[in-house]
């Protein structure tokens, strides 16, 4: 496998979907977009949170839960990574938890051979209430453990996080020095319009790394509206590509030389005292 030290740039794609209440339809949409990403040169693709289902009720995803290593969603992700020969960060899918009524909201990563390379269960569970708009993920989701999760790819160390995690900078500090942070998400229109880009750019700037955020983006069959704006941000906080709404891709390159230039010019990571 060619490494980034042999080739300075590594192409990545954030896949944006507008997922429905139908699993088969959602997998078809994801398959088409993964193929498009590969055709445009992506060596890593990231799907959004809940790419496989945006149910009519919160507990619809519980009925769809899979055992680790077994199930149609995991099979789809593994086969897609192998078919296109890329790293695939599988958004999130529902995996069994010890609680019969709750699932883990899990990111699984597959390498270009289709083997599972990493797993991260969402730690921070979203809760929001303003007027008639209300969400409480803890009703159907069990939080994962407190240990941050990352994996090694040709572009370097890749840190894993999911949606609401974005509001907790201590998680990203705990990951240590990374080349790339990925953020599969389904930010609501209300919170996304206010904070999404600001938080993503802050995480890139303070950790001096790339951030690749794959979002749900549009009006869903279940009536929910998500913010979208999937994007790639460089270590200086510049937005390299962004897809405001609808299914599609935000695509660009991770550059080792750009990482090194930013960290040498402003060595904030070395100046930390806490």
From TrEMBL:
The answer on whether this UniProt entry bears the keyword Hydrolase reads yes
The reply on keyword Magnesium is no
Q: Which PROSITE patterns match?
A: CN_HYDROLASE (PS50263)
Q: Which residues form a coiled coil?
A: none
InterPro entries according to UniProt: C-N_Hydrolase (IPR003010), C-N_Hydrolase_sf (IPR036526), Nit1/2_C-N_Hydrolase (IPR045254)
Cite the entry's keywords alphabetically.
Hydrolase
CN hydrolase domain location is 10-256
Which Gene Ontology molecular function entries are recorded, alphabetically? hydrolase activity, acting on carbon-nitrogen (but not peptide) bonds, in linear amides
Identify the SUPFAM superfamilies for this entry. Answer: Carbon-nitrogen hydrolase (SSF56317)
Pfam families for the chain:
CN_hydrolase (PF00795)
Name the chain's protein: Nitrilase
Give the species.
Pusillimonas noertemannii
